[in-house]
Design a protein that fits this description.
The protein is mostly helical. It has one domain. It has 15 helices and no strands. The longest helix is centred in the middle third of the chain and has 20 residues, at 143-162. The protein starts with 6 loop residues before the first helix and ends with a helix.
């Protein structure tokens, strides 16, 4: 069967379109992002491809980040930092203290059970990973460079504290929690800057799920919803948490301080990578009712 879009539909959805002439000899638009040929190619590829076993889902994230960061107006961004520091005491304190969460395994080895430090040690010991995986070469010299460095260090801590595990559902939920909490708290323009990369990750993930992985798409929508609910309950964006001050706190006390509620059941969405990661050993084994796990686990 051939599906066609009729002329009537084209006319309706294209109403008001006008032709813009240009003397440019190359492709050009009013969007600096569309004008970047490398970004156009990467966005098209990463939005439409499958998560095949030959190429991890995280491939090319550094490339896209580098391009996006190169297109920013940093004079405007720094002005927004100053305006928000004057308006938001918590943000001002965070910027002024510049306390990096670059914990090492040795630092947290002897933290008491149930604390953030103990969770960090267990994660680093069992995974073999470190927190310091992105923006390693950035030297912290101002508020912006501190934000970039600290945001990279925060990611895995945020997984631990929110309960949104490092799996397909948890990654989607955490992205959406951050998007919503920042939009509630910061000036829209600064919130959009802080969320630029996560908006890209959200966009490419949900489109690939919808195109190639129906079960993952159902799960994606569920995780998106629950991430948004929790994120809008946060007292402030989790990026502003001083993890060094909290390293010896019990996790329950940290969650109460930030307002992390509702907390998802332990292990939620733990097997959901296999819904969309073709390199997963269990890829191809479906999960029944992938889009209703949260409610079933909570009952």
């Amino acid at each position: 069967m051939e599906v066609k879009v009729g002329e009537g539909e084209r006319a309706y959805f294209s109403a008001g379109t006008r032709k813009v002439e240009t003397e440019s000899s190359v492709l050009i638009s009013s969007s600096k992002y569309l004008n970047d040929a490398s970004l156009r190619a990467l966005i098209a590829q990463e939005m439409l491809r499958r998560n095949g076993p030959d190429l991890p889902n995280t491939a090319f994230i550094p490339d896209v980040v580098q391009i996006l960061m190169g297109l920013e107006d940093y004079g405007r961004i720094m002005a927004l930092f100053e305006a928000e520091k004057a308006r938001l005491p918590k943000f001002r304190e965070w910027c002024e203290n510049r306390r990096l969460s670059n914990f090492t395994k040795a630092e947290v080895k002897n933290c008491a059970p149930g604390t953030l430090g103990a969770a960090l040690y267990q994660w680093m010991d069992s995974s073999g990973y470190e927190l310091d995986l992105f923006y390693r070469e950035i030297e912290v010299v101002n508020d912006l460079t501190f934000y970039l460095r600290q945001s990279a260090l925060n990611h895995d801590i945020e997984h631990m504290v929110t309960g949104f595990g490092p799996n397909h559902g948890g990654e989607v939920a955490l992205v959406n929690a951050n998007l919503h909490s920042r939009a509630k708290y910061f000036h829209p323009e600064l919130s959009a800057f802080f969320s630029r990369v996560q908006a890209y990750l959200k966009s490419k993930t949900i489109l690939k799920d919808a195109l190639h992985y129906p079960e993952a798409f159902a799960l994606n929508l569920e995780a998106e919803h629950h991430g948004a609910v929790q994120g809008r309950n946060w007292r402030y964006p989790i990026m502003l948490a001083d993890w060094r001050a909290m390293v010896d706190w019990q996790m329950a006390d940290i969650r109460a301080e930030i307002g992390i509620t509702p907390l998802p059941p332990a292990g939620l969405w733990g097997e959901t990578n296999r819904l969309c990661d073709e390199s997963d050993p269990d890829w191809g084994r479906p999960l029944d009712h992938a889009g209703s796990w949260f409610m079933e686990a909570a009952e």
